[in-house]
Amino acid sequence: MALTINPVNPKILNPKTPVIQEKTNLHHIIFGIAASKKLWSHRKKYIRLWWRPNQMRGYVWLDEPVRYNREDNNTLPPAKVSSDTSAFPYKHKTGDGSAIRISRIVSENLRLGLKDVRWFVMGDDDTFFVVENLVRVLEKYDHNQFYYIGATSESHIQNILFSYNMGFGGGGFAISYPLAKALEKIQDKCIERYPSLYGSDDRIQACMAELGIPLTKEVGFHQLDLYGNIFGLLSAHPLKPLVSLHHLDLIQPIFPNVAQFQALERFKVPEKLDSAGLVQQSICYDKSKKLTVSVSWGYSVQIFTRMIRAREVEIPVRTFLNWIRGADFTTFAFNTRPVEGDPCRRPYVYVLSNALYNRSTNQTASEYVRYQAYHHPKCTHQMDRAANIQRVMVFKKPNPHLWDQAPRRNCCRILPSKKNETMLIHLE
Q1: How far apart are CA 238 and CA 380, in angstroms?
Q2: Angle 375-380-386 (CA atoms, 0-180°, nearest 5)?
Q3: I want to staple 226 with a disulfide (CB 3.0 to 4.6 A). Which of 165, 234, 320, 388 is the partner?
Q4: Burial (CB count within 10 angstroms: exposed 0-12, middle 13-18, buried 19+), residue 278
């Protein structure tokens, strides 16, 4: 008997035509900002720096009501008072029961029933977000899956005390919509099982553990469990988009001789021009003068009067201290190198002064002026090779698709300059 093979209807193999979803954008993100009435009048200025009214959605969640003036209404997210959590047990000896209130912000945001939500993002009132880079990070992930995205602490001891699988809340973390729904269903019972935990973010992580969800690490979220000057970290940032900075009142201003708020206002200038390239490091050499130049775009330039291998230059210098007082360099959770004790080996440091965009050339021009120069009689001849350089001009085309490709430092080239006091650099 002959076997008859009928043609397959293609509609059976492909019953549904794939729906192409729009890429994740700011509208799809709901922010939950943890705040307190006590610090609100001071901390709200940090939120105002990165918040975009009419483009972003989210709420500041407080322990008590605060009064908004006209400027607040026009420049800040709406404020809400968290639900009463006094019935939940809290037994940590040195912590604060507000941790329970803060741990429930994602669930409280979810219960508001907002539409077209893909991600819930947590942060503190002293967190500064680079929002375009936050979107760039989140759009890589399928928001229909269970994702818990963030970063650990810069302190190894902090990660041991809490967890290397915990997203530290001050640096910010993101939870996908379906995971937030699953969390909301179990969270209150989950919280009751962990009365001895210290903070809000370890309570979130405990519930994630019960749901079986690990932390997806993105190192551009910065808890900044550090003290002092974070210059060393920002001038040798990992090859990842900068997403957030935390502990703005505890670290020194990121630019010298100004308050932190004014420093961040200056930081916003290059961010608006090329957020993807912000603080990305490039390294170039002037072999004839034996100079090594390290550019952290939009932040700083360092000129070393000797040839240094890239492997060394890309390691952050310890201009900062560990969160745990008295801890040595072995307790950082990332590689570091010491500040040079020999002044002849220290770099000339230049910090961002201004940045502009030229539409006709589609190119940015950022200016960096000398901040630190070390003069020592024993190394005058050696330092003379860069002693006259008072400013550095860096030219670069914005590349919003930088993180759509494999990570690689931008190429760096020193250009001829007619002025001895100015160094010209081109990045591409």
Answers
A1: 33
A2: 80
A3: 320
A4: buried
Helices of type H across 246-314: 260-274, 310-313
Position 275 confidence tier, pLDDT thresholds 50, 70, 90: very high
Q: What does the pLDDT look like over 53-64, one tens digit per residue?
A: 999 999 999 999
Are 366 and 396 spatial neighbours (Cβ–Cβ below 8 Å)?
yes
Q: Please name the residues in contact with 107: beta carbons below 8 A apart, sequence gap of 6 or more.
A: 180, 183, 184, 187
For residue 345, what pLDDT is reported? Answer: 86
103 phi/psi in degrees, rounded to 5: -65, -20
Give the DSSP H or E segment for 210.
Answer: helix 200-211
Q: Supply the pLDDT for residue 105.
A: 98
Residue in this structure with the two tokens 């375009």, named with its chain if needed = 132
Residue 123 to residues 158, 187, 333, 351, 356, Cα–Cα distance (Å): 18, 19, 21, 28, 30
pLDDT tens digit sequence for 254-267: 999 999 999 999 99
Q: What is d(CA 298, CA 277) in angstroms, rounded to the nearest whole number?
A: 8
Backbone φ and ψ of 128, nearest 5°: -110, 120
Maximum separation of any 2 CA atoms in the chain, in Å: 103
The DSSP bridge partners found for residue 130 are none
Distance of CA 297 to the CA centre of its chain: 15
Helix (H) or strand (E) holding 281: strand 281-286
Q: Which residues contact 320 (CB under 8 A, 6 or more apart)?
A: 226, 227, 228, 229, 230, 231, 232, 233, 251
Single-letter amino acid code for the residue at 122: M
Phi, psi dihedrals of residue 254, rounded to the nearest 5°: -70, -15
With contact defined as beta carbons under 8 Å apart, do 270 and 263 qualify? no
Distance CA 145, CA 138 (A): 12
Question: Cα-flanking dihedrals φ and ψ of residue 264, to 5°?
Answer: -70, -35
Residues contacting 247, CB < 8 A, separation 6+: 126, 170, 223, 224, 225, 226
Please report the pLDDT score of residue 273 as a whole number. Answer: 98
> CA-CA distance, 254 to 21, in Å (whole number)?
39
- From residue 348, alpha-carbon distances to 77, 305, 374 in Å are 42, 8, 7
Count of CB atoms situated within 10 Å of the CB of 401: 9
Using a cut of 0.85, tell me whether the model's pTM lies above it.
Answer: yes
Element (H, E) at 178: helix 177-192
